[in-house]
Amino acid sequence: MFDLTGKVVVITGASSGLGAQMAKGFAGQGADLVITARRIEKLEALAKEIREMGVRCLPIQCDVTDSDNVDAAAKKAEKEYGKVDVLVNCAGSAKNAGVLEMTNEEWDFTIDTDLTSVFYVTRAFANIMKKNNYGRIINISSMYGLVGNTAIDTVAYHSSKGGVVNFTRAVAAELAKYNITCNCICPGYFETELTADTLNTDEFSAYMKATVPLGRYGNSGELNAGAIFLASNEASYVTGVILPIDGGYTCV
């Protein structure tokens, strides 16, 4: 089960963190990869690692907040492989502030990067999937897209990730007629470049231990199994699902 040999998987935000981890996870299942991000040198280094696993990998520099950039990346991917089977929308960033202090610029940056970009990328690659009447779209939201929090004020991040959750449901309903599924993973606390400074403090570690039933942060690779399942042929009847992978944070 869950063999992805011959499948083409596109991952945005793949230069580091969860995106890079999932890219290696998919390669381990036999998938060929398209990895995108703004930092081409990191993509090239990851692509070299992935090719050594015996699969193909195309790195493409892409700013997901620029729709022309996204459309060009989709054309390159289709030209290289002739199809796209799986899309993982993982690119994201955020500027943290509460509703009373957040500036327009901070709000717009976060919404553009974490929500509008998911629309741009999904539109571009789902049009390729439609041609083959097959697709698996996996959006990476956050457990903060499901609940509020008392640890850090980050209202735009909550809003954008909540938008991704219901964007997933809308796309799942709309694209089902093309045999395209769309599901969403909501990670909990995983250490990445984006989160390391926040997570690696005594104060936040104490908060995590008090609020996460499993009592720890997510380890590298612990998101992969959920993504691989949702990308598989075996998940053909799974669509519109919101899957927290959060150590139990959202169950209490």
Question: How would you describe the overall organization of this protein?
Answer:
- This protein is of the alpha/beta class and 252 residues long.
- It has a single domain (8-251), classed as NAD(P)-binding Rossmann-like Domain (Rossmann fold), CATH 3.40.50.720.
- Helices cover 44% and strands 15% of the residues.
- The chain contains 8 helices and 7 strands; from the N terminus they run βαβαβαβαβαβαααβ.
- It has helices spanning 17-28, 40-51, 67-81, 104-132, 155-175, 196-199, 202-211, 224-231; strands spanning 8-11, 32-37, 57-61, 86-89, 135-140, 180-187, 242-245.
- It has a 7-stranded parallel β-sheet with strand order 3-2-1-4-5-6-7, sandwiched between helices.
- α1 (17-28) crosses α8, α3 runs parallel beside α4 (104-132) and α4 (104-132) packs parallel to α5 (155-175).
Number of strands: 7
Identify the CATH class: Alpha Beta
- SSE-based structural type: alpha/beta
**What is the CATH architecture assignment?**
3-Layer(aba) Sandwich
Helix content estimate = 40-55%
CATH topology: Rossmann fold
> Low-confidence spans: pLDDT under 50, at least 5 residues?
none
The Cα radius of gyration reads 17 Å
Largest sheet: 7 strands, parallel
Cross-sheet strand order for the largest sheet: 3-2-1-4-5-6-7
Q: Give the overall silhouette.
A: globular
Number of helices in the DSSP assignment: 8
GO biological process, one term: bile acid metabolic process
InterPro entries: KR_dom, NAD(P)-bd_dom_sf, SDR, SDR_fam
Keywords: Lipid metabolism, Oxidoreductase, Steroid metabolism
GO molecular function: oxidoreductase activity
